[in-house]
Request: fold
Amino acid sequence: MNFLKSQSKPNNTADEGLLLEYRQTGNLAPLAALYESYMHLVYGVCLKYLRDEELSKDAVMQIFEELITKATRHDIKQFKPWLYVLSRNFCLMQLRSGKKLQMESLPDFVEFVDDTHLDDDREEDITALERCKQKLPAAQKISIQLFYMDEKCYKEIVDDTGYTMNEVKSYIQNGKRNLKICLEKNREC
Amino acid sequence: MSAKDPNISKIGKYLKGQLDIRVMHRLEREAQDDPFLMGALDGYETNSKDQETNLADLKERLAKRVAPKNERSTLLWHVLPIAACLLIMFGAGYWFFSATPDKVQYANVVKPTTVVTKPGNIIQPINPIAKADLNNKTSKKPDLKSPDLLAVQKPKYNVSGVNDLIGRDTATIKAGLPPLAINTVQDNPVGNIEKLLQGKAVQNNPIPNVELLLQGKVAGLNIQNYAGAPGLRGSVNIRGLAADSLNNNSANRFFGAKTKPASISLITGKILDAITGEPMAAATIGSGGKGLTQADTSGRYQVTVNDGSTLVFTYQGYVTQTVKLNPGQKNLNISLTADTKNLSETVIRGYVKRKPDQANNASYIITGKEVQDNPVGHVEQLLQGKVTGLNIQNNAAAKKNLITISGKVTDKNGVPISGALIKNATKFANTDTNGRYRITVNIDSTLRVTSLGSLSQLVKITPGQTTLNLKLEQEDNRLAEVSIRGYVKRSRDQTTGASYIITGKDNNCKENARFKRRFFKKIVIAEQYISEHAAGDTTSTRSGKFLRALKFIKKRVQVSFPTDKTAIGYADLKIFGQNKSEWLKWYEANKCNNLK
Reply:
């Protein structure tokens, strides 16, 4: 039942080590190694926003250039989420610069706080979760049930329910969000 | 990075549906927790092509960027001879072909007969295992001229996407492409490519690689250049969609062993209202996002779809039903239930002034000038003749049957409701601030009294009645959002959509637009500064702009943190957030006082 908890335990120490090495020596190699391990994600995000392979490839390289300067100036607590924000902002700025819109400044650093502190052992939490689940719209409930409890993948859910792939994705995402909101409300009371 | 992190080949396989179901689930679950991965997956999904080569290219660029000296010279020596050879080859080809008549002929009109193939080869796709194998080899790319260079890329579509694929291929046929041509390309060793190109479509193209000549000539054929991949010498991979999927069976062979051939079947059935049992004429039956047919007057429908398709039944005001057909199912009766959802948004528009490009529906701009000189008693009559298509009838003959009703509308506690609407089919009136109204209607009218947030009431007028007082019950279900637009004049703030300056004769609000701009700008300056420095251990500030902004605000409204240089405590965004909402509240409350 701990699916609201973030599962990913980022491999911080390795990332931090590389980052530290770059900061101390100014040598690009460790930074490049660090960047390369996330490059496929950066590239995917660029593809999402720019929708063009060549543009995205250029963007990936430009983001690396930004990284070279920003990695020294910013206080990076967790590299992966920070890089995500950096990449996304870069792409958005690319899109905006075409339209001459105002740019938002990149925050000095971004903190990603896992705001769900679910204690699995506590009975009441589990019952609260169950109660919240019952409150969800039917489609979200079914999708959440199949995805998290029955551990099925999107495609199986599509086959089982007849929803489209995109519907399933948004049901799971919205359902998860609704559950979080519902649980937080419960805690406040 | 941990080895568990999904790498590009895993993502690629995931998108092609090659992963084990458990592995797929794990990846999806990871994406749910990780917005980065989720975003990347979205990106790869929108670009259906294989991205491993691009990634390899990027890695090389990155390596180059980090150590520019080592790479360049060696790579250049690899590429130069190949480029030279190709240039010479092509030059010879160009000279040869230019001797023939120069009428341009495109590959899609190349006669299939010019292609040399083994007859049995034609609709036989390449063994799927071999393909998958090839896809895995990211580092070791096939050399130019090796037979497995021409691999057919397995289409990204999974089983449920059969429709899409068929749709695409049909388009290909319409475009006049002989499907034979692509098959031959896919199945032939490279040695035959030149023969394929005997069509004159290629003669004028100054492209160094022979394969690239095909690019853009054949629908559905996509040629990717691997030039950037490490250890690769300008080799080319030709990928095409399975063009032989003209019939379903061969299409399905492409999807590997997992799939079953889809067959088309005729589904019939009847659509009824779940409660009344009445046939739902004109209900829509759709599948895969497309409307297919509508039910007839007796609610019957028939539709031809693939076995195992999902049918979607929709009808305005009813809950949409989605049903997945069982294999072999021929009959499907559906009952739809009425949708009880409330309106989620109500937009009430008065006279809205818009730029012509903003107007998305029929609205007219009627200015005060047009109506001010008219000595007319009723608002409706002011509109007579001003708006095309609007016809206002003045039923003078019926006047003797009219009756004037007056009264008061209150809530259940006796508090007057202002702005309640009293209307019959043709006339309406609103209550004033004391809840009073007066309306002249036909003697036998039925009045409907409505007010936002209250249950509406229907009252039949008894002959001779002149007063009618009403108590409205409060309504439980609230509307989610109501936006009301009056005379809207938008200034340059309009991009924010935050507020409008409302002008008009009855408007007492003297909002100073200049002050407004300044005030909000100061808030923005303060917010920017604070959010930029929120994390730092700022104990004093040197930003004069920020201090000036705070002083400006403080002159008018309370600021709960110090505004001098030595102050600490800017670090707290929460405190600022509270302050900001107080400031905005203050502005809303005082904006009509011509602030300076």
